[in-house]
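fwd from M.: "can u put these together and see what the complex looks like"

so here's what she sent:
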Amino acid sequence: MMGGIDRRTIGRWALTGTAALTLFYILMPLISVTWLSFYAQEIPSFPPQGYSLRWYASIVGNERFVSGLLLSVQLGVSATAIGLAVGVPAALCLSRFRFPGREALNNLLLLPLMVPGVVLGTALYVFHVEAEIATGGEFQILGSTVGLLSGHVLVVIPWVVRLVLASLAGFDRTLEEAAHNLGADRWTTFRRITLPGILPGVVAGAMFGFVASFGNLEMSLFLVGPGRTTLPIAILQYLEWKIDPSIAAVSVVQIVLIGAAMLMTDRFVKISRVV
Amino acid sequence: MAAGTTAPARVEERGGSILSAASLIGPATFIVAAGLLIPIAILFRYSLNKFVPRLLMVEAFTFENYVKFFTDAYYIGVFLTTVQVALACTVICLVLGFPLAYVLARTRTRFKNVLVMLVVLPLFVGNAVRAAGWMTLFGSKGIISVGLMGIGITSEPTEIMFTTSAVIIGIIAVNLPFMVLTLQSVIESIDRSVEEAAFSMGAGPWHMFWRVLWPLALPGIAAGVILTFILGMNAYATPVLLGGPEFKMMAPLVFGQMQLGNWPFGAAVSFILMITTLVLTMIAGFRLQKRYRR
């Protein structure tokens, strides 16, 4: 029996050790890019010759990254708003009504998540080309903000539908019936009873949707116009050319923004329960 | 939104109910159907067109783009590289991810939420930023190369950038959070007492893992494997940045062809990528399901 206990202890240590290594592995790129952003010299050679904050100061003057950040935030916020406006009712419908083809509709709404980003980008690109031809070239769709936004809405919808649906599954419907019996109409019932009940799902859907839109790279690559790029694309294009502390500082800004969004969401709903 | 203002609450007529169901789900369905299905149909149509240099695209009905892909050694090479890289990454993700998922699922500390957030944060930060992190480490003057020379293992700078290893290391890091989170949720659903039962009957940890945990976790393992495989097949930023211009996988190939203006071939490669992913995923899902039933 003693042997068994020893083996269990060894097993536990091996397990915890591997888990810690894996976590370190996952975090390593974030740690190293943060470190690089504080290097004093421009060439990313190790060990650094000193540390400096000047790369952070230089971001403000970099038109490309500032406008990329603004465009990404605008896109993320608008796409999330539209995604919530159409996604929450859709989730309500899927959980409340039984009708033929319900499963198929559910799958359809989750489909944008399944289609590879590059395929989605290519498909939307040719769609925009055809749309421009069909309208006689009067409207510019390719590379326009509207075209880009429509793609981002597609990316947000599955997250909202999925997380709100999950929330609705655990929601006690007798509360709604009680509200009905007390004379509340549907809209009041939704606003005062259902919405507060599924709020964690709505917040999580909004946050995941925003992050999916904000960080989207592959699809957006096909849809941005000349001279107007989102932040992830600006970062990618810079990195194709070179790596230096200034791009590292921009990356850290993105890490901090997303970390802040996560911490804010965590106040409403524990991240460990929704992922 | 519109649904709230339709029929009064207590009038549950059948017609009204269908109408409100339609008005609830209609907008989202329209956006996805028009914004995704139609574009994919057009993309497929494009893949049957002909590419003529100077004229770009000529309307046709031919499978020559698909034939070209599977008869040209270069493209077959790109295809095989992609499948191999995706497979390697998936296997390593499973091996590395399981212990972390297990610890996250079973931990009783109050830091659990923090740990989960540490796994989720890199996932949300995006692939380009994480590639930047690896580029810092991999360069010939980066910490790995300098460190190896410092210890005396190597005397020359090690060039990891622009190798297949660099791409695989990068994609594993990108896909690990997906694997870990999927496995964690399935392990959480397994009652801890079955593990205790195995131990109390004298099973060692390894034995318990293979005979109890693994079979019970198999549906989650299947989901995690499929997800990471799909993501590996479709990786874009990591191969572009860590593999360099010579290293080609399917997703960068699609982008390159579209940029060159060869839309029909780009469309065909997109379709090959999507269909291969779907088919391999279905085979994996089916096989695992069969084993699970037994």
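replying to her w this: Chain A has one domain: 62-274.
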